[in-house]
Fold:
Amino acid sequence: MGMVPVSKRGKGAGLAREVRVYYLVVDRPDTRLDKYVSEQNPELTRTQAQKLIRDGYIAVNDCFVKASHILNVGDRLTVSLPPAEPNSLLPEDIPLNIVYEDGDLLVVDKPAGLAVHPAPGHPAHTLVNAILSQLSELPDGGEWPRPGIVHRLDKDTSGLVVVAKNNGAQLDLAGQFQDRSVKKVYLALVKGNLTPQDGAIEAPIGRDRNRRERMAVVTGDKGREARTGFHVVRYIGDYTLLEIRPETGRTHQIRVHLAAIGYPVVGDKVYGVRSPYLERQFLHASRLGFKLPSTGEYVEFTSDLPPDLEQALKAIG
Structure:
């Protein structure tokens, strides 16, 4: 299959200092390289993984191979994620469902499959690019490439996102998220019948020591405080539909916490269980409440389950 030693790489040579590198050890046989990488890194689509492989950013046992290369158990992958290029932050005509807008902010009902902001592996085709097609500019926030972003949803999580339109609004909203006064409610379907019907998960979250691209419940000073409240909406056979209220905002918090207590999110390819009815995780940001920066008035927005999640419930139930 024509393995090429890393020392002779072409386009991947001379990687910038900002490149983030992590390693994977393959835990199952007969899987294509591009498929495995995209499944292990939720920030990457399979097409994006193929491009990284083609450009020399991903190696198998220190050799460069094709995206179609079949992996064996124990193969060691080196994955280098290059930084997004500044010139990729351009307006893109991507349809958006805007549920509210004023002079300070937008509330968008984000579809699954759309990343919130550019990042290694997907430098374009994001919510930020879509919003730039409707606004002449967004606040810089001092943190390119996330202008206007004060919180985020995972790429394959659907639902409500608020985006600031100016620096003052961005600071105000960021402060509300920091002091935990923002109301965030999600709907999640998990495997198993979760009891009790109301409760909270309190467990620190940090990088998985063995798989750095993932998050995990960790002990000691390596984790950050995380708390997730839950309420059972209903049981559906061997599944539970939950209303989730995260009190903190750690990366992948809901998915990690639910997996840690033995009730993984259905359709989650990283922490959960696969489902024949879903192509992505059953997680939807259904309610968002905060104070308007201009007036201090509390407002709250809701979003119905999208068709793919509704269809999955019907199929399961």
